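mind reviewing both lines:
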Amino acid sequence: MSTPSPIRMTAVLAPEHRARLLGTTRDVKFPEGTRIFEEGRPADRFWIIQSGTVTLDIQVPGRSPAVIENLGFGELVGWSWLFPPYVWQFGAEAMTPVRAQEFDASTVRMMMDADPAFGSAIGNWVGRVLAHRLRAARIRLLDLYAPHGSGMTL
């Protein structure tokens, strides 16, 4: 089974919402191996990848973090900034040198509160990203654990 295509901001947000959101960005770079954020820490920003690969991972007691997804060009890194208590649910690491657009979460949340249409559009985009990632994780789990030849389908 293959995972679905990623949900990119450019495909979901209307041009005026995209322009408004991108007006708050700053360009950042992460060298290979940089921990971008840690599970359980405050989620105060998010990123859109311009180049490179970021892995999302979860802490496993007594072991190294387990990689759960690889993200690339145009993909959203971080969604925990949108939901109280604004704490990272996963960790993230730059697996290659990464260039990204960085957004300040509190600024974007204030913009969302001030303009319900903008807020709805951003919430819809992030929700679609979450739904996509949940489906991709389900497919990976089926590939890993479903009996081969069992006829299990999505």
